[in-house]
Protein 1
Amino acid sequence: MIDITGWVSAYVDKLRPLLMQYRMYLLVLLAIPIVTTTYEDYCEWYKLGAGGIPHNFLGYVIQLMLSFLTGRDRRSIAWLDSPKNTELDKTSFLNTTLPTREGDRPTIGPYCVPHRQTTDAASEELKKTLQTTLSKISSDNSASLEYGSSKIEGGNSHALFVTEQMFATNHISYPRSPREIFHLHDSEGSGHGVFSKADAVLIIQKAWGEKHPLSGMALGIPESYLIIYAPRNEEEIKVVEMLARAAARHGLEGEHLL
């Protein structure tokens, strides 16, 4: 009978010097597909633009680490029924009926930071109109709201904030920028906001947005922190304005806005 074990052992002993001699080449060959795939993914991430973390390889590594903390079902509304919900959570701050968004939802990038849509970007004209709209909401309510650069996005986007004087009543927020209630993404026209849970459910059901991957999962980000899809026309800008105002009323716990 052939001693298979002995034969394999002898064969490995013969190969060992060869493997040791060329081990560096073997490691390089094994590393090439890993490095290539990582580089291609990094380039896709980089194309999304700056947003809250360093816009370099360090930022890419940070988002890879954060991705292990993300929630999977970003259109689930199961959290509405939590026994921990407050009256504020259950209150809608929309001042009119939210219509259903027509057509398919845009594609959202696979990265948790920056969290962006990769299809159906708003035109430059629509993005400028959005910025003007957000600024006007602030100027019309200057005692309660401010307009400036988003701290959540690292100063790369425009945002609405609750004023210092009104901040004491704003108890649902993103710890990194507690007074910030809604911001735009200048890259493609989408935005993020903190809404009441009742409004967040309507927004998801009516296909105007979905949860951030880290909402309710990490960094103290509220469950009702949503991405709002970029508007495709002037009518949809009116809807985004309505949503921004709802986020503002929620941040001000129902205070009237002009």
Protein 2
Amino acid sequence: MAPSSSLVSKLKVQLKLSISRLRMVQQKDTAIAKQQRRQMAHLLEQGKEESARIRVENIIRSDITTELLEILELYCELLLARIGLLEPKECDPGLEEAIKSIIHAAPRTDVKELQQARQLLVEKYGKDFALDAVENRDGKVAERVVKKLRVEPPDPVLVDLYLREIAKTYGVDWPRGSSQGHNGSDGEGDDDDDEPSSGQAVKNLEEPLTTDELSKATPPRDLGPKSPVSIAPPSPSTDNLNPRVKLPGPPELKPSAKMSGLKKQTPSTQAQIDPKSADSNVHGKGSVGGKIPDVDELSRRFAALKK
């Protein structure tokens, strides 16, 4: 008998392979079931109801098998997640249902990886433990697993439900006249709505606005192009109860130090710095900024220039 640690490591690898294999088989069975449903719809459309009732049992059996594989996949994931509890010789009570369900149902499936995982579990816990699981003596095997493995004809009510659902999915009129009866009931409901015997009357539609009224109407504020940048106002806090958003404006133009120094200078300081310029300004004010000279003054100026 192999050591417990090596057996658990092999079981861990085999559980991972079983999970991936079970998922692939489920996807394959689901794709085949879709094709079979399409064939059932074609048979119902042709009126071959008896043939469809017999063949739909294969679809029901395939769906039950897919559900069984899904349950076994969940049990494998449980064992993989609690792989450390498989080290002791005795079976952990929390894993007993999963282990016995796998030992009981694995031979009924076509998944070889799951059957190899079953062999490792039998090798670890012994033949007596495996025999109890196969025959389900103590009832530890999950009831839903036992129910999925039962071989019995499906209930006629379940067969009808499957056929109705297939016909509804593919738009087939089955049973014959069911869609016409449904449309007729809808038509009667429309007649009753045209002339209601009780209830509130339907309100008349409002008259459309004229051009003058539309011209007087105030356009909404959000009409027109919007700025791509929107700033949400900050929420009030204990430090600032009335927060405001300050948008950056144009930069302020400040005068340089040289310009500010020139502005501060007064006429008196300028006269002290340059007295000649001050005298010229005083004389200039009398000649340029004063009154217009008369003829006598002009003649005296010309005489002075001739000398």
Protein 3
Amino acid sequence: MVKDDQTVIEEFSELVNMEPGELEAWLKEEDSAGAGWKKVDVTGETVGHERYALAQSEERSIRLSSYSGRMIVDILKRNPSKDPEKYDEADIPHMRKVVAYCKRHLAQEGKAKQDPDSKSAKSLKNWGHNPQKA
């Protein structure tokens, strides 16, 4: 069953516990690029760094082929107070993906909270969730 948009917004606000600047700095670190599942292609990127194409909204244009983590940074910068009324319709599909990823990985792996150097913890940080803050 698909969650309604309001639930996705609430869960995104709870799960994404990194500030935009903090996430932006993390995504530039070597540990960030090495976390997660590797895609089988020439880019060598992890799935968390995979490119997603987004539709353009009337209020703003989003650069196509933006990285997932960078999309989270963009969402957070445009709505730093996480006001549910200020999210764009184009944000919701990616927010839904972030919520699903974080919830799935938090339920499957307790190691992320126990070991900040684990691949699981680093991968979650790529998606805006720092397990050590939770």
Protein 4
Amino acid sequence: MHSISALVSVLAVVATANAQTPPGFSPSATAELGLSFGNSTISPGEQIGINVPASAPIISTSSPLNGEYLFALVDPDAESPQNPNISQYLHFLQPGLTFPSSSSAPATLYPATLNSAPIVPYTQPAPPSFSTAHRYIGLLFSQSSNFSVPANFKQYNATYRMFFNITTFAAEAGLGAPVLANYFLVSNQTMTANATTNATTTATGTPIATFTGEAASIRVARLGTMAAVVGAFAALLV
């Protein structure tokens, strides 16, 4: 009985560790969506500098996909994680993506082909200087052939992006759960996710970056999850 309980714990924490969305965010996905700005590929949970390119990220998958897809990029932390009074802020809503098998890219990368105009064009992340790091969550949904923008969301465009709700949008549009996801953090504060003078050091004296704010909570959550995995497996051996 003890082993069964430990196994259940392992499965639960592994599911959390495999999530490609921030802890506690819904909807979630366990398979990673490729996001990159130029030659810089985004790893889930990575913090990048404030100077995010003005051009939309390259969206890709690790294998070709059939059918069409819709991509959404949302910020659940606007204006700030402590006061998300205009959340969610919609940074990009792009339908009509396809991921064909023929590609000039490496065989392990299948960049999206955009077959229609965006519903809401991309705008780059620019969190205010008074805020800690914002999370920017990219979600890829399977898009049906009769997809249309739900009536309650027709007001969203290049100039109106506040108070979006990706869960309600997906439900009313009949999109189902996201199939792939990724997220990154951006801060306009110099103290967030940077090495500091009192950073922890390794045995060789090499500084380890000290994380604060939102980046800290996500980093701790990931480390805690991995510790829980190890602990649960150890319990199976008792």
